[in-house]
Design goal:
Strand content: 15-25%
Low-confidence stretches: none
Structural class: alpha/beta
Mean pLDDT: 93
Strand order of the largest sheet: 19-18-13-12-21-22
Oligomer: single chain
């Protein structure tokens, strides 16, 4: 006997009435989801009607899942399995995945408020929506239906904190380190590691790595170190053999990257860590990608919990509904559609990028990695201020952006600032175009001076620049240089005189309470050097960056002259690491992305 839509809806109504809870307060529903077409159709219609709401931004807010898609139908205990899963999801603050899901039933497709996660993710929330709540449904073979509403319980016990640190269990890769005074000492340590691993070959690789670290600790006084990242015991053995061979042949040769190692083995005969300073580098916009930040939330949820404690609108500030993305339709074109949806939401591009820099910063800091310098590339300067808690008013910035037209229509979208600067009418197409060309800055400056409405926006590295402006003018300028332009999207009309049309509003947006850490130097592109960060000074620096060309080459060389040798990029992808490599060339340095 199948449950009717009326019986299902009645169960929903009674549950939420008993719980004194509104449907919009629930962010996850564990469905019965049996896979039987008739049951699924009834459930889809009832859920689509009951959880429908008119969200102001049209984005979904409630996730759906079904444990049966993972473990199968467990008969008379199916409801208890769903209860266990839902309780664990609340406890671990994880929205569970339904990886086999592709396309919703038509009844469900009509409701844009519901989404189906394909990957497990941290349970992001806005605090004003209250505590996390979930619903779960179960149908029986006699046609009845029950629905429960669960609410999270907060506990600060040590046991709870420990068992919530890795909600997805042991990791599939692990880091091993060996340290010593010289090459023979490293060889000896590698031998010890090989024996240690072979004696524990049946244990998970992360468990072995934790036991190795507990046994050896970190020998900070030793001059040399070697790092190995392995996926299993065989992989550890292969890396050790490669390391021993290299040390035997030439202990003065560095080991880093290249097949088959690919950054799984690292050794430097001239370590820079004790003498050289470390800089955190925050990249600019345009590096975004779908799924950005999801792994951090489930692998290191304490990073997100800290941000959640500090932030009122974390879900929206991370723009996770765009980046995850939160959607129902996972058919063939989903990536194209989701990416376009993200690009069209200009504010989401901006604050999602900045928030990701905060996440990466906090994650890297958990490994006791502490920088002496902070360098931001374009939007990265803002990310650096927020990540280091120089600025803490995240919700205030989010509110300001929500009321501002700067990144909606002035500098992005219809690009009204450019329209005004160029004297165009409302019907004229601004056709703002920008991209990367491989030509020296001097040549680009000369070519730009001969073309109206074309600009040198950023000097990335020797022989590499970002140019932009009116499409035909930019193409004319690029053609005059005999160059090829790699186009970029999702980047605003800044780093040129166009931004002068909104200079006052742009500066006002970036006037925030400012309290920089005392032990770090902040670099400004407008000044071309480090400076003492103040409320007015930070706003001026960001404004001046928007009004004129950024010279990343100059700032990196200045930081190098100040003693920085290690550059860790904290943001999506690896654009800054690549550029730093081109800027510094053969000079001793290390530039790596944490992404």
């Amino acid at each position: 006997v199948y449950c009717t839509e009326k019986a299902y809806t009645t169960a929903l109504e009674r549950a939420y009435d008993d719980a004194a809870c509104k449907p919009e307060e629930v962010a996850y529903v564990e469905t019965h989801g049996s896979g039987l077409p008739k049951e699924d159709e009834v459930e889809a219609k009832a859920l689509a009607t009951f959880f429908k709401r008119d969200d102001k931004d049209g984005l979904p807010a409630c996730a759906l899942g079904s444990v049966k898609s993972v473990v199968g139908h467990t008969g008379c205990v199916a409801g208890l399995v769903s209860l266990a899963k839902t309780a664990l999801s609340l406890y671990q603050e994880v929205l569970p995945a339904m990886p086999s899901f592709e396309v919703p039933l038509s009844a469900l497709d009509a409701n844009s408020n519901l989404h189906v996660p394909k990957r497990a993710q941290y349970w992001y929330r806005n605090k004003d929506e209250g505590s996390r709540k979930a619903g779960l449904s179960s149908m029986s073979i006699d046609g009845t239906c029950v629905h429960l509403v669960l609410e999270e319980h907060k506990s600060q016990s040590v046991q709870v904190v420990t068992e919530r640190r890795q909600p997805l269990g042991v990791r599939k890769e692990a880091l091993f380190t060996v340290e010593g005074a010289d090459a023979p000492a490293l060889m000896k340590e590698l031998g010890s590691l090989q024996s240690f691993v072979s004696e524990r070959k049946n244990a998970p690789i992360e468990t072995i790595a934790r036991h190795w670290f507990a046994k050896n600790g970190q020998k900070k006084d030793e001059r040399f170190g070697m790092a190995l990242v392995a996926s299993d015991c065989k992989n550890v053995s292969e890396l050790i053999d490669r390391a021993k061979s290299s040390l035997n042949q030439n202990p003065e040769e560095a080991i880093s990257g290249g097949p088959p190692v690919q950054d799984r083995l690292f050794y430097s005969p001239r370590p820079l860590g004790k003498e050289g300073e470390l800089a955190f580098v925050f990249p600019g916009s345009g590096n975004y990608y779908l799924g950005m930040g999801l792994n951090i939330g489930v692998q290191w949820p304490e990073v997100l919990r800290k941000l959640d404690d500090e932030t009122g609108h974390l879900r929206d500030i991370l723009a996770i509904r765009r980046y995850a993305p939160w959607r129902q339709d996972w058919s063939a074109e989903w990536k194209t559609n989701a990416r376009q949806s993200l690009v069209d939401d200009h504010n989401a591009l901006i604050y999602g990028h900045v928030a990701y820099g905060m996440m990466m910063h906090d994650l890297v800091r958990t490994f006791d990695i502490n920088p002496q310098a902070i360098i931001g590339y374009s939007l990265g300067e803002t990310a650096g201020y927020f990540a280091t808690r120089t600025w803490t008013e995240r919700d205030e910035m989010y509110a300001r952006l929500g009321k501002s037209s700067l990144f909606v229509s002035d500098l992005l979208g219809s690009c009204d600032a450019a329209r005004k600067a160029w004297g165009l009418s409302d019907s004229d197409d601004v056709n703002w175009t920008l991209g990367v060309i491989e030509r020296p800055a001097e040549e680009v400056r000369e070519a730009v001076s001969k073309v109206d409405k074309a600009y040198l926006l950023i000097v990335n590295a020797p022989g590499e620049c970002v140019v932009g402006g009116y499409g035909p003018a930019v193409q004319e300028m690029v053609h005059s240089l005999g160059a090829t332009m790699i186009p970029l999207d999702g980047v605003s009309t800044v780093h040129c005189e166009v931004a002068g049309q909104v200079a006052s509003a742009y500066r006002e947006l970036h006037l925030l309470k400012t309290d920089p850490p005392k032990d770090r130097r902040f670099y400004s592109h407008s000044l071309g050097k480090s400076y003492e960060v103040t409320r007015e000074g930070a706003a001026d620096s960001i404004l001046n960056n928007a009004l004129d060309t950024i010279d990343f080459t100059k700032v990196i060389n200045e930081a190098y002259n100040d003693g920085v040798r290690l550059f860790v990029e904290l943001g999506p992808r690896h654009s800054c690491s690549r550029m730093i490599g081109k800027i510094l060339g053969e000079k001793e340095h290390i530039a790596r992305t944490a992404c």
